[in-house]
Structure formats: C-alpha cells, structure tokens
Design goal:
Helix content is 16%, strand content 42%. It is an alpha+beta fold. It has a single domain, classed as Hotdog Thioesterase (Thiol Ester Dehydrase, Chain A, Roll). It has a seven-stranded antiparallel sheet. Strand 6 and strand 7 form a beta hairpin. The longest helix is centred in the middle third of the chain and has 17 residues. It starts with 8 loop residues before the first strand and ends with a strand.
C-alpha cells in the first residue's frame, strides 16, 4: 500500500522516499498536492550556495534554464509516483519537452513555485504542463511527455 496516496503536503524527507534523485540533483524542497493525481505545486528555495550559481555566471549568478525544466520534470514524476501502489517500484522517464519558454532569469534568493498539471494519461504515457513562477510572475514554462517504467533494483 502507498503511504503517500492520501497525503497532500510533503517535505524533503517524503520527497526522497518517492523520487530516486539525491543531492546535488534533488531540486525540490516541498510539495503540495492541489488535485490528487492531477496537479501540484512544488517549491524550490534558491540560495547563493547552490552549486550551479558558482559557475553560471560569476558576478551575475543565474540558474541554468535547463534546471527549471528538470525541476518541472521532478515535480511531474512525483505527481504520478505518489499515486501508484508502490512508488519505489516505478520511475518516470521523460521523453519529450515541447513549447519550453524562459521568460526571466532565476537568481539567488528567489523562491521558485512550480505548478504542474497532468494533461493526459494513457497507459504508461503521461503528458504534463508546468509553469514556474517567482513572486507570481511566470519565469519558465513547458509541456512534457513521460513514461512510467519499472525501477531497476540495486
């Protein structure tokens, strides 16, 4: 039985029980399910201590745009994995990114709010729409396709 199926708020300890990512690649701090199996909001607090800010770019630190896509991908994965019977037996592999737009730089001190919505699910194929906001201003957005797959056991 899935211990997360009826839960709506998740801290980092819960998140790492569902997602296979670990430091430095776990990019979500908190999650709130707004519509179980259909939508969530993920939070990422960005500090100057993030490893990518040291080299991207010295003197003008900016989060790489591809990492906002990764945060959306992790949020979409959590949305689906938190709803399956045994989340530790599955993974999500993203297969396509469409309509990605980067509207404003994400910088140290920002709190990134990621709104992920499941657009469609057919068998193991899922389609998502993600919007990243800082202070209610859209900074990035994209549509994703992903497949639920069996997780390899170590």
């Amino acid at each position: 039985m899935n211990q997360f199926k009826n839960k709506v708020e998740f801290n980092i300890n819960d998140i790492i029980k569902v997602l296979p990512h670990r430091y430095p690649f776990i990019l979500i701090d908190r999650i709130k399910i707004t519509d179980p199996g259909k939508a969530l909001i993920a939070l990422k607090n960005l500090t100057i201590n993030e490893p990518f800010f040291q080299g991207h770019f010295p003197g003008q630190p900016v989060m790489p745009g591809v990492l906002s896509l990764e945060i959306m991908a992790q949020a979409g994965s959590f949305l689906m994995l938190s709803q399956v019977d045994d989340p530790l037996s599955m993974n999500m592999f993203f297969s396509a990114v469409d309509s990605a737009k980067f509207r404003r730089p994400i910088t140290p001190g920002d709190q990134l709010k990621v709104h992920m919505t499941l657009i469609k699910k057919k068998l193991n194929l899922c389609k998502f729409h993600g919007i990243c906001k800082v202070d209610d201003i859209v900074v990035a957005e994209a549509k994703f396709s992903a497949n639920l797959v069996d997780r390899v056991r170590e």
